[in-house]
Write a structure and sequence with these properties.
alpha/beta; Phosphoribosyltransferase domain-containing protein; two-stranded antiparallel ribbon; 357 residues; four-stranded parallel beta sheet
Length: 357
């Protein structure tokens, strides 16, 4: 009797905060098909569905609700997660669905009082077979600064689905190695096959950060610490167009065996140049910099004799040597359409949960 009572108490304590019945999921799926047609699930004319009726809502919703329940249960037990890390790049749509659903549930006051959702971060981790991911102290240091995860944080790494398990295991080991934390791991979706956006690799708002192997090797082996420091400063403080312009000017001068001055580089950063008074007018992102510090780094760049690829170097310092994904620069219409569908499904789901509460 005592053991039965303990089991009942444990079951009640661990009972999920949120629940969505199968019939509700069917209704949501019908609504999504009605609203988006073949676009829901990317079932265009080139995709052969065969005889199998695919229920995209059934694939995504139970696991996403389970993920939310997992964070709620840890909160209820007094040991909440501080951060959820979704694995780039295909993890973005699932993370968006999770965040939209949490937002909708919060708006409807369906989450426990005092519950603060964990921070959401993204990392391109665990792909040990990717030759572009160079694991070294420098890129690890950049990741540490960008993610700002402390060793005492409670972290949950979320992969979309389990194939071999190698990706999630690699991510757990990598995060432990870099931050000294002991993260937990889970899968958002229960199936062993990928979600529907795997059918079309173009349906993403992020891509691998374009960092050439030569650029990585050059920066990581650069003995001239002054040049490395200046490249890092300029890449982080300036807009991409401004940074690229400075590098291209120096590269052209090298090709023409011409000297570059810090003054000529400084003029390129100016939004306007008053020829009468000789006054340089700079955009805000430049005026907020320390003038002496900026001139120092421009002087270092002006005397550099190495051939550099500006885009690749800029990406190196913005995306931790290629360890993070970068925003897409091409057509974003399809990717944004995917996000619109995720948001709509989150609204429908929250409506269903609210009706049952």
């Amino acid at each position: 009797m005592i053991s039965e009572a303990i089991s009942q108490i444990t079951a009640e304590r661990d009972a999920p905060e949120l629940y969505l019945a199968h019939d509700n999921i069917e209704l949501i799926e019908r609504e999504m098909k009605k609203n988006y047609g073949k676009w829901w699930g990317f079932h265009d004319d080139s995709f052969n569905r065969g005889s199998q009726e695919i229920n995209e809502s059934e694939y995504m919703l139970p696991g996403t609700i389970r993920l939310i329940n997992k964070t709620l249960n840890e909160f209820k037990h007094g040991d909440p997660y501080d951060t959820l890390i979704f694995l780039d790049k295909s993890g973005r749509p699932g993370a968006y669905l999770y965040r939209q659903l949490v937002e909708q549930l919060t708006t409807r006051q369906l989450l426990p009082e005092g519950f603060v959702p964990p921070k959401v971060r993204f990392m391109d981790l665990g792909k040990t077979d990717d030759p572009w991911k160079i694991r070294n102290p420098e890129t690890a240091s950049m990741m540490t600064k960008m993610l700002q995860i402390s060793p005492d944080e409670k972290v949950l790494i979320v992969d979309e689905f389990k194939d071999t398990g190698a990706t999630l295991n690699g991510a757990l080991a990598e995060l432990n190695k870099i931050y000294g934390t002991n993260p937990e791991g889970t899968y958002q979706f229960e199936n062993s096959h990928g979600p529907f956006w795997y059918r079309d690799p173009e349906q993403k708002l992020v891509v691998d950060a374009r960092v050439f192997k030569r650029t990585k090797e050059f920066i990581e082996e650069l003995n001239n610490s002054d040049l490395k420091e200046s490249l890092a400063f300029l890449a982080k403080q300036l807009q991409r167009e401004e940074f690229n312009k400075l590098i291209e000017i120096r590269m052209l001068d090298i090709e023409m065996s011409k000297a570059t001055t810090e003054e000529s580089l400084l003029k390129e950063l100016a939004a306007e140049y008053n020829n009468n008074g000789g006054e340089l007018i700079f955009p805000y992102n430049v005026t907020r910099l320390n003038p002496e510090e900026l001139r120092h780094h421009l002087s270092i760049l002006a005397h550099n004799n190495e051939l550099l690829d500006p885009d690749s170097i800029y990406n190196y310092y913005h995306y931790a040597g290629g360890r993070f994904a970068a925003p897409r620069t091409g057509d974003r219409k399809k990717g944004l359409g995917l996000y619109e569908m995720m948001k709509r499904m989150a609204v429908l789901t929250a409506d269903m949960i609210e009706q049952k509460s």
